[in-house]
Amino acid sequence: MSKKTKAQSLQFDDKGLIPAVVQNATSGRVLMVAFMNQESLDKTLETGDVHFWSRSRNELWRKGATSGHVMKLVEVIADCDQDCLLVRVHPGGPACHTGETSCFFTPWSSAAENPGETVFSETIGELAEVIRDRRENRPEGSYTTRLFEGGVDRIAKKVGEEATEVIIAGKNDDADELRRESADLLYHLLVLWEQVGVSPAAVGEELKRRRR
Fold it and tell me: What is residue 108's predicted lDDT score, i.e. its pLDDT?
């Protein structure tokens, strides 16, 4: 099916708009909700930079045009009714005008038995984004930059060293030490994933497949 045919099947409202839920493709965190029309959707697909339609200004706008926090498109997915879009992106910075990572940061209620699980997954995703930025931009003085410059051999060696430290901490039955060493291991593992081209989401899908 062609891109044009897919777009024609979407159910825009009477104003020619369709809601777009924007999601960080690495962490899975919902960043914001905006609206698209045919023009902004076409512009997004053509340029790879996410564009929306401003209802208040009645004009096309490229996310990050002012702040510099441009969103790079990964994919657009329509829901079952074709009347809402999931826009998966690599964000160039905070999505919210307040400076927050996501526009959704005001808690109202929670039924989660363990809210820390959400914090863990979001933190892993955000760290993966930082690591990806380090690989692409290689800022001077960054430890992560030095790891990438050393290549897979240096990174894998660090993963092995940190895994050994985790084992020792576990054998010592020291929860605090295990917590710290586990964080070190996860960080270096994320660097290795980035070096080889494996995303946290892909690992999550593999774990989900195994659960089935």
Answer: 78
